[in-house]
# Entry
Amino acid sequence: MSITRRTARRSVQILGVAAASSALALSAAGSALACNTSEFSAEAKCDGGKGSIVVTDKDGSGTPATITVFLKSPAGSETPVGQPQEVKGSAQGTTVTFNEDWKANATYRVHVKVDTDRVHIDKDIKGSPLTTPAEGCSKDESTPPATPPASSTPPADESATPTPSASESSSAPAGTSSNAPSPAAGDSNLAETGANSNTGMIAGIAGALVVVGGGAVFFGMRRRGASSKS
# Structure
């Protein structure tokens, strides 16, 4: 049976459509298998009290990718964690580990870079930045508990001088007596000038003068009496 030109032309058209459909299908399949950031994930882990940042690549195409991890400070600056690492993903997941003694509630940025003939990626992975748990790998690295409310009673001030009690304030200091009699007015002047030291001598002289004067008066009266009799 001979094949006419019309039949041959129609067969060629059918083969062309089939080839184009196959090319489109292969292209779609290739795009579906291409690496993308949604296939990467990161997690902060502990191993024997030591911390690490583990990045998992579940890219089934096995496209090589470079992973870089940065520690972000509260001020906004970034510090690289270790050196960039290369990973080839798999459907089951391929991991790379960055040894990092991370602190509680720290923030890390995970960046992926892919540069091949078919795929070009240079951005952070899905879910970045990563925030570490509220409890670190060591107990002393956990977030401190909230400060309890202050008591309504103010604490005693140890530096303040204690107020003396009524009984202590009313008592006289050592070495002085509040019941001692106050000195007389004359004695106080003598005590200040030192004249009280001659008081005994003056009293003795005055007594002697009184005796001498009394004797002179007695003898004088006796002589007058004798003269009047004669």
